[in-house]
């Protein structure tokens, strides 16, 4: 018998008992997301926006995981700091939305502000119940006769409220990082690196290099304006010069994510030894700071104080769970096609020596592919537990492939797919018999998932949105003045060719225009100009020399007219008009910036050993704004790649084409869709240009802009069916890529206008629209 309770005003008393249980809450939802890092946060939001009720369990006091103020790692993915050839590769969907919102509110890169953005995004979704400080404790399997091995519920404990929460759901998404739920549910997994011969992966590491990536911990310093003494704790590393081989490269200017090389744990159990790894990282950090402050080798550190040291290590690797497909090195390097692709990656194959900070080897070995690659949905589902989805870094991949897929923006891109997928499972199933995620691998279901993802703003390389419900696709005509590239004025700063420079230009297959530009030489010299293309049309690796000319320059100004004769462009692609390195020459540039047009420089050559299965090629990368100007040039005949018809071709970013409409200079910035019979329109989706080439690092590295200059700031919808224009919708102050205009009631129109009223950039910027869709 339970002890009697005595209730009195302002007092609660209970008699002694043999034992008690924690308070228990029982919840039932469509999906339970375990883990509130960037992936779990995105999966929960995407699911909620697709009509799913969600419980999000996070064992930390804030969201974001490695991106949060507790760890402070920047969010990166396929753009890789713009240090690779993956142009226009930034992730779409919610990754894009979060990074652009962070840019707008937080161009300084303050990790605390990013915390607030992630928390706000979740709190704004009425379909999400968020449980912070709540740790997953266990799961219960369904034991009904004839049932498959499904998860029925999970149990999670909040130490702040002394409450055990039991969550019953149809679907479960594991975004815990270590795969805690998948582990408890009995899903198959791997830890460590495969041998080379298992999958034919030539980059698979040997035992000397090590089979696991370690953890990192960061610290911040600041100038106190006066001398600051530091007394190291007793556990600090004492002999930095002896213990840490790279001590000679130490700099007091490094902080935060730049200290990724303070890494440890690759020889340990990266799940169960995490606390021991953290203590060793603290030992290193305080030892390094002691070395800065008290070795006498860094007089510039006199006024510096240690402002923050991470209390949670950033974990790279632990368990990888197995699905129907295991992604491997060749999928990434060869950019293989997958029928069930739902996401994309582009980070390098980035392996770290297991000895981390104590290693004599360089802190990482990074080999890039020539372009982005697809990630299939079959790496995110579990055949043995059919209502379990793998999120974050635990997807089905080899150790080598994981070295690329593990980064946060890529994991967040996958999470877009998971959230949309559980929404589709609910839509296609019934309350009594919900569709399991693995059933989405069926051909028709997968086509629907890919369609819904692209509607959501997801980019899937090699796919385009074929949307039969889109009224813009059904329009009899699309009209609007369109930009044609015939010239760019020479009003920018001269660019000295200390490195080879290339203007990227979108050309259709066939004849090559004649180009003209002006160079200045300090002395008589020669300048070599090449026209280059890529082997694969969707790539931006200028590896194929299509034509070449050499010009004799005189000292002073030289106007060059470049005709490549009978040379043709073999495929629709971006070609590279390359001016090869000559530091005696400067080329005239332009202040004009144009959507889907940029210059790149030859940064370095990727020269891997012959036996690692990675291509050697040149890396040509852009210079960030406010630098990185286009060339001042003339083009004859003009390049007509920004036509208004692009807004319904199903690809809302540059690929082998611009896929963008830019209005003609000086004309009204209005595109008009016309129908032969009235169309009933209630929702219009517009996709603006927010420069998908920009990495938009979330923390530490600041940005000079609060909004991307190409982005449409103010726009409106117009009913142009009658003699007078009727404004249906107007938005001012936009800084995001994808916007939805939902009207109070459907309107019947025979002519619908989308008008750009103002860009975020100045008069030198010509921004455009990638996509317009309309629905009843």
TrEMBL record:
<dbReference type="InterPro" id="IPR039650">
    <property type="entry name" value="HdrA-like"/>
</dbReference>
<keyword id="KW-0479">Metal-binding</keyword>
<keyword id="KW-0560">Oxidoreductase</keyword>
<keyword id="KW-0411">Iron-sulfur</keyword>
<dbReference type="InterPro" id="IPR036188">
    <property type="entry name" value="FAD/NAD-bd_sf"/>
</dbReference>
<keyword id="KW-0408">Iron</keyword>
<keyword id="KW-0004">4Fe-4S</keyword>
<protein>
    <submittedName>
        <fullName>Uncharacterized protein</fullName>
    </submittedName>
</protein>
<dbReference type="Pfam" id="PF12831">
    <property type="entry name" value="FAD_oxidored"/>
</dbReference>
């Amino acid at each position: 018998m339970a002890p009697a309770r005595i209730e009195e005003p302002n007092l609660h008393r209970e008699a002694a008992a043999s034992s008690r249980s924690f308070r228990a809450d029982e919840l039932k939802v469509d999906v339970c997301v375990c883990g509130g890092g960037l992936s779990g946060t995105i999966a929960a939001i995407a699911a909620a926006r697709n009509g799913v009720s969600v419980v999000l369990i996070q064992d930390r006091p804030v969201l974001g995981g490695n991106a949060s103020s507790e760890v402070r790692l920047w969010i990166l993915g396929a753009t890789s700091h713009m240090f690779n050839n993956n142009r226009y590769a930034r992730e779409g969907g919610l990754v894009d939305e979060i990074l652009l919102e962070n840019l707008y509110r937080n161009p300084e890169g303050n990790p605390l502000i990013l915390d607030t953005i992630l928390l706000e995004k979740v709190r704004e979704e009425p379909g999400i119940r968020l449980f912070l400080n709540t740790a997953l404790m266990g799961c219960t399997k369904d034991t009904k006769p004839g049932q498959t091995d499904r998860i029925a519920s999970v149990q999670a404990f909040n130490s702040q409220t002394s409450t055990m929460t039991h969550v019953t759901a149809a679907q479960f998404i594991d975004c815990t990082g270590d795969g805690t739920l998948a582990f408890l549910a009995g899903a198959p997994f791997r830890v460590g690196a495969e041998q080379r011969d298992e999958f034919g992966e030539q980059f698979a590491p040997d035992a000397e290099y090590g089979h696991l990536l370690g953890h990192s911990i960061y610290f911040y310093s600041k100038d106190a304006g006066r001398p600051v003494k530091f007394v190291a704790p007793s556990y600090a590393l004492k002999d930095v010069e002896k213990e840490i081989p790279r001590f000679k490269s130490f700099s007091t200017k490094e902080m935060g994510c730049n200290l990724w090389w303070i890494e440890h744990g690759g020889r340990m159990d990266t799940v169960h030894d995490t606390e021991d790894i953290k203590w060793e990282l603290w030992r290193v950090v305080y030892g390094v700071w002691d070395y800065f402050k008290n070795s006498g080798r860094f007089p510039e550190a006199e006024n510096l104080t240690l402002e923050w040291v991470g209390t949670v290590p950033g974990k790279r690797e632990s368990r990888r769970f197995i699905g129907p497909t295991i992604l491997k090195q060749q999928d990434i390097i060869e950019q293989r096609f997958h029928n069930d692709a739902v996401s994309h990656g582009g980070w390098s194959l980035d392996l770290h020596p297991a000895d981390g900070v104590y290693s004599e080897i360089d802190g990482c070995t990074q080999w890039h592919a020539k372009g982005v690659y697809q990630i299939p949905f079959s790496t995110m589902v579990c055949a043995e537990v059919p209502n379990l989805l793998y999120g974050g870094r635990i997807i089905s991949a080899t150790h080598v492939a994981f070295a690329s897929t593990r980064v946060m923006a890529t994991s967040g891109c996958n999470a877009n797919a998971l959230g949309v997928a559980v929404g589709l499972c609910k839509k296609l199933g019934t309350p009594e018999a919900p569709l399991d995620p693995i059933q989405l691998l069926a051909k028709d279901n997968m086509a629907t998932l890919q369609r819904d993802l692209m509607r959501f703003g997801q980019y899937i390389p090699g796919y385009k949105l074929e949307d039969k419900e889109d009224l813009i696709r059904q329009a009899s005509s699309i009209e609007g003045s369109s930009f044609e590239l015939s010239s760019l004025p020479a009003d920018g700063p001269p660019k000295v060719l200390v490195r080879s420079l290339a203007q990227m230009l979108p050309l259709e297959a066939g004849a090559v225009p004649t180009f003209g530009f002006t160079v200045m030489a300090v002395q008589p010299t020669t300048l070599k100009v090449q026209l280059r293309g890529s082997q694969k049309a969707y790539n931006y690796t200028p590896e194929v020399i299509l034509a070449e000319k050499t010009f004799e320059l005189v000292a002073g100004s030289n106007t060059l007219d470049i005709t490549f004769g009978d040379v043709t462009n073999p495929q629709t692609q971006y070609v590279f008009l390359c001016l090869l390195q000559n530091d005696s020459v400067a080329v005239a540039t332009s202040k004009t910036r144009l959507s889907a047009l940029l210059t790149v420089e030859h940064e370095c050559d990727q020269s891997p050993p012959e036996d690692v299965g990675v291509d050697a090629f040149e890396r040509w990368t852009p210079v960030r704004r406010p630098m990185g100007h286009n060339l001042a040039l003339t083009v004859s005949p003009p390049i007509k790649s920004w036509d208004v018809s692009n807004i319904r071709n199903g690809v809302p970013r540059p690929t082998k084409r611009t896929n963008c409409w830019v209005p003609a200079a000086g004309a009204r910035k209005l595109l008009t869709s016309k129908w032969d019979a009235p169309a009933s329109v209630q929702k219009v989706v517009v996709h603006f240009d927010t420069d998908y080439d920009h990495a938009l690092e979330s923390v530490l590295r600041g940005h000079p802009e609060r909004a991307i200059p190409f982005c449409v700031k103010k726009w409106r919808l117009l009913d142009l069916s009658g003699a007078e224009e009727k404004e249906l919708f107007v938005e001012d102050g936009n800084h995001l890529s994808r916007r939805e205009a939902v009207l109070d009631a459907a309107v019947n129109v025979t002519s619908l206008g989308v008008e750009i009223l103002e860009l975020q950039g100045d008069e030198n910027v010509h921004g455009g629209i990638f996509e317009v869709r309309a629905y009843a």
